[in-house]
Amino acid sequence: MALIEVRDVSKSYRRDATIIPVLDHMSITVPEGDFLGLMGPSGSGKSTLLNLLAGIDRPTRGSITVAGTEISSLAERALAGWRARHVGFIFQLYNLIPVLTAFENVELPLLLTTLSKSQRRDHVMTALNIVDLGDRAKHYPRQLSGGQEQRVAIARAIVTDPTLLLADEPTGDLDAKSAAEVLTLLQRLNVEFKKTIVMVTHDPHAAERASRVLHLEKGTLVEQTTPV
After folding, report:
1. Apex 21 CA angle, 91 and 199, nearest 5
2. Which of 95, 173, 106 is nearest to 139 (CA)?
3. First and final CA of the chain: distance in angstroms?
4. Does the reported pTM lie above 0.85?
5. How much is the CA Rg of the chain, to the nearest whole Å?
6. Residue 200 pLDDT exceeds 80
7. Bridge-based pairing state of the strands 2-15 and 61-66
8. How far apart are CA 109 and CA 40, in angstroms?
9. Is residue 122 over pLDDT 90?
């Protein structure tokens, strides 16, 4: 079953009087449970596509449907609510808040829900245990390694049990060992927890962990590969 349907999507930005095209008539189907890697040079439109799937940005033309909802036509307020329920976003630079503990960083998305304090605690500790950092709940980001910070960020992304996990260069700031640990964790979330993942990466080693890889060039799809 298709979880994501991108139909004839184009995206351009206006800079003064100039129109800058980023995506050009792109159509992609992502089945539920897929682990899709997006590769391509800088400026190929990978991160733009990820932002469109997250409902952070809107296409100039075409439609994007996720889990039966055409998000490209939602009003801003409805889109924000949809995002909070359905999308977990993992950033290259973690985006943790330095003055909050690992527990408090992971809890942030739950503060927008109706869960009680004890329910929030259960959800947070479950997420931290999944990423193998239950014993670091009271640590601040400065007390963690880069790999641990990224795993806290992944815990924050999964704490609401989102429909879709989107990762933008999740290993781009990590050493090889930490990157491998993060990629193994993403694979586990995909295989064991059936999470649908779309990951942007420049790194062929990271792309090898995906079930399939789409290559973008100048806003269009040029090829699809399936890692061995």
Report:
1. 25
2. 106
3. 23
4. yes
5. 17
6. yes
7. antiparallel
8. 31
9. yes
Domain boundaries in the chain? Answer: 33-58+76-225
Determine the CATH number of domain 33-58+76-225: 3.40.50.300
| Backbone dihedral angles phi then psi of residue 11, each to the nearest 5 degrees | -140, 130
Integer Cα distance of 80 and 75 in angstroms: 9
Q: What angle do CA 110, 112, 118 make, to 5 degrees?
A: 40
CB 207 within 8 A of CB 201: yes
Is residue 227 scored above 60 in pLDDT?
A: no
Q: Which residues 6+ apart lie within 8 Å of 91 measured at CB?
A: 153, 168, 170
Nearest Cα to Cα of residue 133 among 113, 39, 22, 143:
143
For 137, residues 6+ apart whose C-beta sits below 8 A from its C-beta are 101, 102, 103, 124, 125, 128
